[in-house]
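All the exercises in this workshop are built on plain-text protein records. Sequence and backbone structure share a record, each on its own labelled line. The structure tokens are whole numbers drawn from a learned vocabulary of backbone shapes. The record below serves as our worked example for the rest of this section.
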Amino acid sequence: GESRFVGGHFTYPGQARPIREGGDLTIPAGSSLAIVGQNGAGKTTIAKLLCRLHDPQQGRIEVDGVDLRDLPVEAWRARLAAVFQDFIRFELSLRDNVLPLSPSSTALDDAAIQAALADAGVADRLTLDTVRARGYEGGTDLSGGQWQRVALARALCGVRAGAGLVLLDEPTAQLDVRGELEIFGRVLAATRNVTTVLVSHRFSTVRQADRICVLEQGRVLELGGGRVVAPLTIVLGRTMDRLGDGITPRLARLRRHAGECREHARGHRRLAQERAAPRPTGSAVRTRRMRTWGR
């Protein structure tokens, strides 16, 4: 269903500054939302609040108009498929690493597990029965990037088992930009019928999402379509503008880069508008050519 932050003020224990300073944020059912921002902006906190690892001290989180705190924790988490950056690696077979620990997962067969692994980009040569740890007879370990893909396959299996909300908190941090872009494309295609939240610090890899939310100091700074280039340039531009005069040469270069980014964004918008405009056909094309030749 639709998830909505109404306020949602939260401060971690022992910290003076709130990591999330309220503000409304709606995640429509069946859509994909990418959350980007600098370190400490509150991206992971949103994912943790949605998982009910914490509850907001002020405000509330609603799911289809119901306060999340009024729902049983276990019943709510059974509807989630979450992968965090520090995911768990089980010293078990690949099958047991991918199959989610929920009653509904018992209906999933090996074909469903293989399909989830394929959607996550896991190599075909990996067998389901092999223990993924070197301390066991015949066991083999995986690389960091492969383990991240296995964790993503676990979330995709959760979707096949009935999860309606997928939370991915920088699960591809050990992949390069091209690998992350490919994986996010695969994940969004496999989760197009459920609500998906992607958390990343790489703006370029999440532009496939339906909407992008830019966070700054716990607040929603910008919220727009996934193909809009402007949010990133706005963050950089506003940061530079607040510094005022007397900045260092390095920050001066950043300010110039911010201006170049704005011009680049304007060029992208003009190109998108030209592509969206209807193309002339037939006599209109011939008339335009005749006018061109007559000059």
Q: What stands out?
A: The longest helix spans residues 249-276. The chain has a mean pLDDT of 77. The first strand starts at residue 3 and ends at 10.
